[in-house]
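Quick start: what a row looks like.
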Amino acid sequence: MRRRLVSLASAAVAVLGALSAPALAQVVGKVGVDWIGNDIIVEAVPDPSVKGVTCHVTYFDRSVIDRLRNGKWFEDPSNSAISCQQTGHIEIGDIELDKGGEEVFRQGRSLIWKDLLVKRIYDKENDSLIYLAHSRQVVEGSAKMAISTVPLYGQQVTWAKGKP
């Protein structure tokens, strides 16, 4: 019985670890935008599979006063911006190469219904990495998005599995 509980606990930890596989962000800036406490947050997000690339993502963080006033207790707006740059020698690990890209970062923007996502797409023809920030909602999608590109052309890039 005890062995089974340990097994189940280990499985639960593994599942939670897999769900949180995207990169962890570090807050590097917080700019107040009004007198009621709303802020713009700036986070640095290193790409976990592409060493030497860091994205800076910004988003709006609603204050308690704004939540009380507008009645949207458990969600923040979908607005975001992104800028990604080479911050060191680029080493590309095992990345998804299909047109749907790969999730690099995910952060909840509401209690359960909305996420801010950053996806990486490899543009083989133009030898570039594209980073797309967008909102994903369970019920209704959002057209709000931002994009940033990191060119690989002319750079010294190391590919873990050889350049595709």
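That is the whole record. Residues 24-159 form one domain. Residues 1-21 have pLDDT under 50 and may be disordered.
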